[in-house]
Amino acid sequence: MSNKQMNEADRCIALLVSAGRGHRIGGEIPKQYLDLGGASLIRRSAEPFLNHPGVDGVVAVIHPDDREIYNRAVDGLALAAPITGGSERQDSVRLGLEALGNAGPVPGKVLIHDAVRPFVSEIVISNVINAVGPDAGAIPALAVVDTLKRGAGGRVGATVPRADLWRAQTPQGFPYPAILEAHRAAKGLELTDDAAVAEAYGLAVALVAGDENNFKVTGADDLARAERFVQVPGSPRVGMGFDVHRFADGRPLFLGGIEIPHGQGLAGHSDADVALHAIVDALLGAIGAGDIGVHFPPEEAKWKDAPSHIFLKAAGDAVAEASGVIRNIDLTVICEAPKIGPYREQMRSRISDILSISAAAVNIKATTTERLGFTGRGEGIAAQAVATVEIFKSK
Question: Is this model's pTM higher than 0.70 or not?
Answer without folding.
Answer: no
